[in-house]
Design brief:
Layout lengths: L5 E5 L8 H13 L3 E3 L2 H4 L9 H9 L10 E4 L15 H8 L5 E4 L4 H11 L3 E3 L3 H5 L6 H12 L2 E7 L6 E11 H6 L12 E8 L3 H13 L6 E10 L12 H12 L3 E2 L13 E3 L1 E8 L2 E7 L6
Parallel strand pairs: 1-2, 1-3, 3-4, 4-5, 7-8, 8-9, 9-10
Antiparallel strand pairs: 5-11, 6-13, 7-12, 12-13
Length: 307
């Protein structure tokens, strides 16, 4: 059982349509002794968003002026909406308040856009991690996800091992970054995409067909981004169904084309993303990736850890 923590909710993206799941998550976290702040973010709604732009922006910018920082800042859910706010985020204030503080900013999906913008503008390291409604409020809690979450937030060095179908072999060292692939591509050409040299790029997505994933990866290559990466790690790509028209064109085909065309190692099959089972990764950390005979291991360090 993890030590009781203060958890501040933020909802900078879509309205939480599964209110029951969010409330279930709050009850579970409170039962474990955690203090939950900003509960009003769960029920806010404006059109498809979790409140209007000003309300959702305030969730983010308030972190720069809180008299007492929480241990964890947890996104309620993803969806769409963060991108609308990026030009008005108080990056200087957030950097001044959060730099070198043991605060874990956690979320994924649409939240990726804010995480990468913070990394680009301030150097702040955040966690691609489970969220309130979809993960902590799941009908069946994933012990895998919870274990990896609490270990990542409390361990100065985090190591994740998994079995990969990748034919690659080797060892690479670089900056771990990435998240949701659609959100990464949405930031190309903007000030919000970090310019990572010698990166280890981890990607995941949901409801995107293999051809759409390949198209986004080609965009990364044609923008010069893939050339600056040491390796790619692929997480889960879910909620898609191949048809007869695809004629064998699947995700494995996409990954192999990356290897053949761009000479990039692609280490597949990490439990990371929108599936129930997901690891927690520090975006902006110093990482080492290695694989031999299908046994992959990723270790990272340099992230804020809870006291």
């Amino acid at each position: 059982m993890p030590a009781p923590r203060s958890i501040r909710l933020i909802a900078p993206s879509g309205y939480c349509h599964n209110q029951a799941a969010a409330q279930c998550a709050v009850q579970r976290l409170q039962a474990d002794g955690h203090r939950i702040e900003n509960l009003s973010a769960i029920g806010r709604r404006f059109q498809r968003f979790a409140g209007d732009d000003a309300q959702r922006l305030q969730d983010i910018n308030a972190l720069a002026t809180l008299p007492d920082l929480p241990d964890i800042v947890l996104a309620v859910r993803g969806g769409y909406g963060v991108t609308r706010l990026l030009g008005q985020v108080d990056y200087a204030g957030l950097q001044s308040r959060l730099q070198n503080q043991p605060v874990a900013l956690c979320g994924h999906s649409d939240f990726t856009a804010l995480q990468l913008a913070l990394l680009a503008q301030t150097g702040l390291i955040t966690f691609s991690a489970p969220m309130l409604a979809g993960n902590f409020g799941a009908e069946a809690l994933s012990e895998f996800t919870l274990t990896h979450f609490w270990q990542a937030l409390s361990s100065p060095t985090v190591s994740v091992g998994w079995r990969s179908n990748s034919p690659d072999r080797g060892r690479w060292h670089g900056t771990l970054w990435g998240g949701n692939l659609a959100m990464i591509c949405s930031l190309i050409g903007t000030p919000w995409l970090p310019q990572i040299e010698n990166g280890i790029l981890v990607i995941e997505d949901v409801n995107e067909h293999p051809f759409r994933i390949e198209r986004m990866l080609i965009q990364l290559q044609q923008s010069g981004i893939l050339a600056r990466q040491q390796a790619i790690i692929t997480g889960s790509f879910t909620s898609t169904a191949l048809s007869d028209y695809d004629n064998g064109f699947d995700f494995a085909t996409v990954w192999q084309r990356l290897r053949d065309t761009y000479q990039l190692p692609v280490i597949s099959d990490l439990a990371f993303g929108h599936d129930a089972d997901t690891v927690t990764l520090g975006l902006g950390t110093s990482a080492t990736l290695q694989i031999e005979d299908g046994e992959a291991q990723l270790a990272y360090t340099g992230h804020p850890t809870l006291r």
